[in-house]
Design goal:
With 185 residues, the protein is α+β, with helices and mostly antiparallel strands. It has 3 helices and 10 strands, in the order H-E-H-E-E-E-E-E-E-E-E-H-E.
Length: 185
């Protein structure tokens, strides 16, 4: 039993190295009440985030498009001077709570939580995702998104406060690089 426990951690630790792990299960933050999916669709720029192994570039943005009963999700970044895109699928996990989306970028992986904690639909949105690992600890992901490549500092501070009030530790949140994005590669 001890050996299997050690082996599990030997494989899991490298996967979460750049993430933000915390002891215990995921928190259950409140999500946007009366969320309207259609209004959320469109282009969102990443302003700040908790570190994520899968996001290493700059000029990160995501475009959401309704396609029948699902959501087409196209995320892009510039990494080492090259524009990289990945396409995924999103769904509403619970029709009674449409702010709780699930997103996957692979047909073989399950949907990951993508919860809209807050949005005004036209300026900014706060998104949270959390994955429990053996119910011993969890890995957080959090993003401050904007319809433009910048947000006022006061808006970012209010966003950070909203995460904190929902027991989401954003002390390691970093600003995303959105400079020089409109230049040709």
């Amino acid at each position: 039993m001890k050996l299997s426990f050690v082996l599990v951690f030997a494989f899991i630790i490298p996967l979460i190295r750049a993430q933000v792990p915390h002891w215990g299960p995921c928190p259950e933050p409140a999500v946007q009440p009366a969320f309207t999916l259609k209004q959320f669709m469109g282009r969102w720029f990443e302003i700040a985030k908790l570190p994520a192994q899968f996001e290493k570039g700059r000029c990160i943005e995501t475009n959401f498009t309704l396609t029948g009963n699902s959501i087409r999700v196209v995320s892009s970044e510039i990494l080492k001077g090259e524009l990289r895109k990945i396409e995924g699928t999103g769904v509403i996990e619970d029709p009674k709570n449409p702010a709780k989306l699930g997103i996957t970028y692979s047909y073989v992986l399950p949907y990951s939580p993508y919860w809209i904690l807050s949005t005004d639909y036209v300026n900014s949105a706060l998104v949270y995702s959390c994955t429990d690992i053996l119910r011993l600890f969890h890995v957080d992901f959090a993003w401050i998104l904007s319809r433009t490549r910048t947000l006022p500092d006061a808006t970012i501070e209010t966003a950070r406060d909203t995460f904190a009030k929902n027991n989401i530790d954003v002390s390691r949140m970093i600003a995303s690089r959105q400079q020089g994005c409109d230049k040709t590669l």
